[in-house]
Specification:
The chain is an alpha/beta fold. Helix content is 32%, strand content 25%. It contains 10 helices and 14 strands. Strands 8-9-10-7-11-12-13-14 form an 8-stranded mixed beta sheet, with helices on one face. A 6-stranded parallel beta sheet has the order 3-2-1-4-5-6, with helices on both faces. A hairpin with a 2-residue loop joins strand 13 and strand 14.
Length: 327
C-alpha cells in the first residue's frame, strides 16, 4: 500500500490531542473519513480538519471504498467489534490501547487477524517516544548492570468528574466499557513498556479494592508479577490518594545502579551509579503518537516493520485480567 487512506472510528479527546493530525504528517497518508455516533461531533471534526467525509455508522465508514485502513479510537469495549469488522473487510487496523476490555476479546482479534491476513496495530506509542528510548538505551547498555527488581508506583487524587452521580460518571470507571477502572486505562502503558524491556509477564497476582467509594470500579490496586526472564516486580496504583501522595514513577534496580522515570509526567530521568546521580530531560513531539503512527504507516507501505501489534499487546491484557482476578 503506497497511499494509506484512513477512516477514523471515534473522534474524541485522544484523537484531537494525541493522534489525529499525525496521520496526515507522513508522506502517502491522509484521513478521508471520520465517524462518531454524534452527528455534531463527526461533522465538526471533519470540517475543522478538512476531512471530506463523515459518518454516524461505523459499517458505512468501513465499507467506504476510499478508506483502506481504519483507526479505532473508541472506548475498549467496542475495540474488538470494530477491529474485527475492519479486518474482515480486508482493511488493516490501528487500535487505541488497551487492545480490548478483556483478554478473551484480545484473543478474538488475534484469531481474525491471522485468518484474514490483515495486520492489527495497537497504540502503545510510548515504545517509540524519545523519552522511553533513552531509558531503554540505559538498560540495554548495562549502565545499571543486571536489573534485579522493578517497582511501579502511581498515585493521583480523584478527578473532578469522579464525583459525578451514577449515570454521569466517565466511561473510564465503568468496567463494562473500560474493562475496569482507571487501572485498566493507565497501567497498560506501564506494563507494555516493561514487557518491551524484560519480556512477557508470565505470572501476575493482585489485590484490588474500592477505597474511595466514588464509583463501583476498583480505585486501588497492588500487584506482583514475573517476567519470562525470571525478573520479578511489584506495582501499586491508587486513584483516590491525597495530593501529597501524588506519584508517577517506575524504578529499575540493577546490581550496578538504578534508574527511575515517569510514564505520564515525563519528569527528568534519574540515573544513579557509582559516578553519582545524573538527570536527563528528554522532550517528546507535540503529538505523542506521531512516531508510532509513522512506524505503522511505513509498515503498511513496506518500508519498515512495526512490532506494536495485536499479538504483542495481548499479554498486557492477560496481566491486567490476572491482577484484577478476572480468571
Amino acid at each position: 500500500m503506497k497511499n494509506i487512506k484512513w477512516g477514523f472510528i471515534g473522534c474524541g479527546e485522544v484523537v484531537e490531542k494525541k493522534s489525529g493530525p499525525a496521520f496526515s504528517e507522513v508522506d502517502g497518508s491522509s484521513v478521508v473519513a471520520v465517524m462518531s455516533r454524534s452527528e455534531r461531533r463527526a461533522r465538526s471534526y471533519a470540517e475543522q480538519h478538512g476531512i471530506p467525509k463523515w459518518y454516524t455508522d461505523a459499517q458505512e465508514l468501513i465499507d467506504d471504498a476510499d478508506v483502506n485502513a481504519v483507526y479505532v479510537a473508541t472506548p475498549p469495549s467496542s475495540h474488538a467489534t470494530f477491529a474485527i469488522m475492519a479486518m474482515k473487510a480486508g482493511k488493516p487496523v490501528y487500535v487505541e490501547k488497551p487492545l480490548a476490555s478483556s483478554y478473551e476479546d484480545c484473543a478474538r482479534i488475534n484469531r481474525v487477524s491471522e485468518q484474514t491476513g490483515m495486520p492489527c496495530f495497537v497504540a502503545y506509542y510510548r515504545r517509540r517516544l524519545p523519552y522511553f528510548e533513552k531509558v531503554r538505551e540505559i538498560v540495554e547498555r548495562g549502565v545499571i548492570g543486571k536489573v534485579v527488581n522493578v517497582q511501579v508506583r502511581f498515585s493521583v487524587p480523584p478527578r473532578e468528574e469522579d464525583y459525578a452521580p451514577e449515570g454521569e460518571q466517565p466511561w473510564r470507571v465503568l468496567p463494562d466499557i473500560a474493562g475496569g477502572g482507571y487501572f485498566y486505562d493507565m497501567a497498560p502503558h506501564q506494563l507494555d513498556y516493561l514487557q518491551q524491556l524484560f519480556g512477557v509477564i508470565v505470572e501476575a497476582r493482585g489485590i484490588s479494592s474500592n477505597r474511595g467509594g466514588l464509583y463501583k470500579a476498583e480505585d486501588t490496586v497492588n500487584a506482583c508479577f514475573e517476567f519470562e526472564n525470571g525478573l520479578s516486580g511489584s506495582g501499586s496504583w491508587c486513584f483516590v490518594g491525597h495530593e501529597s501522595a501524588r506519584e508517577d514513577r517506575i524504578h529499575l534496580m540493577g546490581d550496578r545502579g538504578s534508574v527511575s522515570f515517569s510514564v505520564f509526567d515525563y519528569l527528568p530521568i534519574r540515573l544513579n551509579t557509582s559516578r553519582g546521580e545524573e538527570s536527563f530531560a528528554v522532550p517528546n513531539p507535540p503529538y505523542v503518537q506521531a512516531p508510532l503512527i509513522k512506524n505503522v504507516i511505513e509498515h503498511l507501505q513496506g518500508i519498515s516493520l512495526c512490532d506494536s501489534t495485536c499479538e504483542s499487546a495481548t499479554p498486557v491484557n492477560w496481566a491486567l485480567d490476572r491482577i484484577l482476578g478476572k480468571f
